Amino acid sequence: MAKKKTERKASNFKEAIGLQSILKSERTDFLLGMVIALFAVYTFVALFSYINTGAEDQSLLEHTRPGEWLNQGKVFKNYCGSMGAILSYTLVTKNFGYAAFFVPCFLLVSGIKMMQIYVLNIWKWFFGMGIAMIWLSVFLAKVLAPLMPEAIFNPGGYHGSVCVDFTENVIGPPGLTAVLFFTAIALLTFVSKQTITWVRRMFNPIKNFTGKASEIVTDKLSNTDSDTTDIEDGHTKLSTEDDKTTNSAKETGKESEPTPVIDLTEFSNLGAKKPNKATAEPIITATPTPTPIKTDGEKLTVEVGKDEKAKGEQLTDEAINTPINPLEPFTRYKYPTLSLLTKDENDGKPYIDMDEIKAYNEEIIKVLKSFGIEIREIKATVGPTITLYEITPAEGIRITKIRNLEDDIALRLSALGVRIIAPIPGKGTIGIEVPNKKRHNVSMESILNSKKFQETKYDLPIVLGKTITNEVFMADLTKIPHLLVAGATGQGKSVGLNVIITSLLYKKHPNELKLVLIDPKKVEFSVYSPIADHFMAQVDDDDEPIITDVTKVVRTLKSLCTLMDHRYDLLKLAGARNLKEYNDKFLHRRLNPEHGHEFMPYIVVIIDEFGDLIMTAGKEVEMPIARIAQLARAVGIHMIIATQRPTTSIITGNIKANFPGRIAFKVSSMMDSRIILDRPGANQLIGMGDMLYLNGNEPTRVQCAFISTKEIGEINEFIEHQSGPTHPMELPEPKGDDSEGGGNTGGADMGSLDPFFEEAARSVIVSQQGSTSMIQRRFSIGYNRAGRLMDQLEKAGIVGAAHGSKPRDVLIADEGQLTAIMNQLRG
Ligand SMILES: Nc1ncnc2c1ncn2[C@@H]1O[C@H](COP(=O)(O)OP(=O)(O)OP(=O)(O)O)[C@@H](O)[C@H]1O
C-alpha cells in the first residue's frame, strides 16, 4: 500500500514540475538530437586530427599531470583541444583503431533520427555499425598492423590486437582468416542478397568467364530471403492483413460503441410489452478475402520459367541479374498511426439528453393521437446527430397514414430534418428520425480506431461515419464499385471525400493503391500533393499529379481507358477473371514478368466538382467516365465523382446507370434528391455531414466522420517521410495521342534516338526477347519510354511488330549486324 502511494506521489511530482511533458516533447528530442549530431561532428574532427597530432599528444596523455588537461599552455596539439585528444586516444588507441570512425558515424545517425530529419531504424544502424566496427578493428589489427610497425597506435586499436592474439592462440592464423572471411560475407549478405550471386560467381570462375554461369534459386531460397528481409527490417511485412492492423493495433481495437436504445414505452403509458433490444446488424458484411502472399520486390522480378503456369522451375542467370525495379517493394513502409488524429472529446459516444428525448416522445405520441393513430410501443435509439424513434402502431393502422404526417410532426417538434421511414426495412415498425439539439461530431479517430475498421478484410475499405444506431459504417469500394457523391454546397462533400481517402491511406500500401485526383476547383486536393510519389498515378508529362486542368482531365481519362484495355489483355493472357485473381497468380510466380506481367495496384479515380467538367468538356469527359465505370471494375479501377449540382444535365442517365453507389448530402429540393437517389430524403437532411448512402434497396442515414485539414496534413507528412516510390505511377499514353508499345510506330522519331537505344538493342539481341517490360526493368524507365524505345527498335528493323501483350520477334541474330545498323543510323 505504502509503496503504491510513493509511486503515485513520484509520478505526480514529475507531472507537477512538468518534467514528464518536457521529456516527452518533440522540442526536447529535436534539441537533444542536434546536440548529439554536433558532438558527432566534433568527434569526427578530433579523430582526424589525432591521426596527425596523435604522436605528440599520446605521450602527454599517458603521463598526464594534474591540471594539464586544461591545456593552458596549448600543450595538446589536437585541433579539438585536450578533450579531443583524450576522446581520440580512448577511442582509437585504447579501443578500435581506425574502426573508431564508426562511433561518430553512428552518433550522427542517432542525432538525425532524433531530430526527425529522416525516419530511420536506429537498432538496425546500431547493430550494423557495431558489428562492422568490431570486424574492421580485428581485420586491421590482423592485416594492417604488420605493415605499419612504426605506427603510434595499432590500426585495429587495443581491442583489435587483443582479439587477434587471443584468436590466433586458439585457432591459429588460418582459423582467424576463415572467421574474418565468413563474418564479412555474412554481413554483406544481410546488406544485399546479391552477395550470394557474387560469391557463387567467385567460386565458379570458369563458367563465369564463358558467360554460362547459371545460379539456381529455388523457392526455398526465396522464402528464406523473405524471412531475412523481415528480420533485417524489423518492420511491418508488406501485405498480410494482420500487418495492416498492426500499424495502430497497439493503440486500438475498440469495439463499436453499443447502441444506446432507450425504451420509452413506460414513459408513454402505452402499457405494451417490453420491446426487443435493437439489434445492431452490420450494414455490409465483410467477405473474407484470401490473404495474398506478397514477396519482396526482388522476387517479383524473378523469372520462374517460360510456361505461365509452371511452378518452382529453375531460374536463368539473366532473370537473377535483372535490375530490380525500385518501385517494388517498400517493406519498411509504416502505415499512418492513430496518434496523428485528434481524439474524440466524448470518446465516440453520443450525448444523451433524457429530458429532450422524453419531450419529443410525448409530442410524437400526442400528434399521432390527434390524427387518430394509436401506438403500441415506442423506443428511442440515440445516434451522433439524430435520434430514431421507433414506433409500433396499434393493429389496423395504415402505414401511409403515418407517412403523410412528416410535416405535421416536424412542425410540432419545431425541428428541421424530421424524416419518416415507414416501414423500417426488415422490421414491422415505423421510424421517425429527429435531429438532436446537441449534435456530436463523429471524429475520424473514433471510426478508424474501431474494431470493425481495424479487423476489416475489405480490399478497399472506405469508412464513412456512424449510423443512427451509432455503428461504424463502412463499405468495400471494390464491391460498390463506383460512387457518386452529391449535395448542395457546404454540406460536407469535401470532408466526405477526405474521409474516404484517409480510410484508404490507413489500410493500403503505396504498392497496392494509386489515386488519380481531379480537382477543377484547384484547392480541394492540394493538401495531398506531399504523397504524390507514394500514392498517385499520372500521365508522364503532367508535371502536377493533382489534375486541375480540363484538357489534362480528358487526357488522363483516356489514358485510364488505355490502361484498362492493357490490363484486360494481361488478365486474358493470365486466365484470370479479375485483378485479385491476377495479382494472386503473379505473387505466386505463376506469371512471367518477361511476358509483360506485373503487379497491378488498385486505382481509385476521385473527381471533385464533376459538374464543372461536364459543363466545360461535356461528352468528351462523360464518355470515358462512362466507359471506365462500365468496364473497369474487374481490372481494379474504381471511380468516385462528386458534384454540388445535382441536375439531370450533369447526373445523366448514362452516369446514373454506371454509378450504383450513391452518397447524398443535404440538397435544397426534393427534385435534387430524386436525381441522386431516385427518391426523396436528401432534402430532409440537416447538413454538416448528415448523409444518405445508397447501394441497393434502401438508403442508410449516416453521420459522416469529420477530419480537419490539419489532420490530413499530418497524415500526409507522415507518409511523405516513409520509404516509398520516388515518383508517381506512370499511366500509359492515351491511344491515338502518341505511339506506345502497341504496334503503331508512326510516331517513333528516328531523328532523336533514345540514349538507351544501342544498349536496349544489344540486350534484346543477346536475350532474343523483344519485351517492353524487360527494357523497362533493365533500364529502370517508365512504360511509355520503354514503349517508344521498342517502336524505335521496330523502325530500325531489330524487332518485329507487336502481337498484343506477347513479346515481339527479334529479327537480328547477332551483335555484328547491330553495329552495321548503328553505323547506318548515325549516317
Ligand atoms: N462530417 C462533418 N461533421 C461536422 N461538420 C462537418 C462535416 N462535414 C462538413 N462539416 C462542416 O461543413 C463545412 C463545409 O463542409 P465541406 O467543405 O465539406 O462542404 P462542401 O459540400 O464540400 O462544400 P463545397 O461544395 O462548397 O466545397 C465544414 O467546414 C465543416 O464545418
Structure description:
By secondary structure, the protein is α/β, with parallel strands linked by helices. The chain has 31 helices and 16 strands. The strands form three sheets. A nine-stranded mixed sheet has the order 7-6-15-14-13-8-12-11-9. It has a five-stranded antiparallel sheet with strand order 1-2-3-5-4. It has a two-stranded parallel sheet with strand order 10-16. β4 and β5 form a beta hairpin. α3 crosses α4. It is flat, with a radius of gyration of 34 Å. Adenosine-5'-triphosphate binds next to α19. One of its GO terms (biological process) is cell division. It is found in: Cell membrane. It holds the Pfam family FtsK_alpha. One of its GO terms (molecular function) is DNA binding.
Helix content: 40-55%
N-to-C terminal Cα separation, in Å?
A: 95 Å
How many beta-strand runs? Answer: 16
How many whole angstroms does the radius of gyration measure?
Answer: 34 Å
Classification by helices and strands:
alpha/beta
Percent of residues in beta strands:
5-15%
CATH superfamily of the domain at 444-550 and 603-720: P-loop containing nucleotide triphosphate hydrolases
Largest sheet descriptor:
9 strands, mixed
The name of the CATH topology of the domain at 444-550 and 603-720 is Rossmann fold
Mean pLDDT: 77
Bound molecules: adenosine-5'-triphosphate
CATH architecture field of the domain at 444-550 and 603-720: 3-Layer(aba) Sandwich
Any low-confidence stretches, pLDDT <50, length ≥5? 1-11, 209-258, 265-327, 737-746
Strand order of the largest sheet: 7-6-15-14-13-8-12-11-9
What spatial form do the alpha-carbon principal axes imply? flat
